[in-house]
């Protein structure tokens, strides 16, 4: 496993998303209403738009360009125009830091 620091837990409000870049890859980190953290690829599968610029509601991220929606917990595409799921990544929290397994 390749655990890397994404952010501090207090850097993402509940029901919000933050962008995290590692090398040439972009990720999106989510803070759920249950105070859990999740990570997905950071670009929409429809047109490679940064999801961190989108809107988070409940457990859904909405792409800012064409309003495609995904369940960020499992990456499932929830309807047109998106039809390809997002890749998700394991997350753990240690000492107030969100770590993502990008391996």
From TrEMBL:
Cofactor: [2Fe-2S] cluster
Keyword flag Iron: yes
CDD domains with a match to the protein in the record: Rieske_RO_ferredoxin
InterPro entries: MocE_2FeS, Rieske_2Fe-2S, Rieske_2Fe-2S_sf
Top-level taxon of the source organism: Bacteria
One annotated GO molecular function: metal ion binding
The keyword Glycosyltransferase is annotated on this UniProt entry: no
Keywords: 2Fe-2S, Iron, Iron-sulfur, Metal-binding
Coiled coil (UniProt feature): none
Family from the record: Belongs to the bacterial ring-hydroxylating dioxygenase ferredoxin component family.
Protein name in UniProt: Rieske family ferredoxin
UniProt source species: Lichenibacterium ramalinae
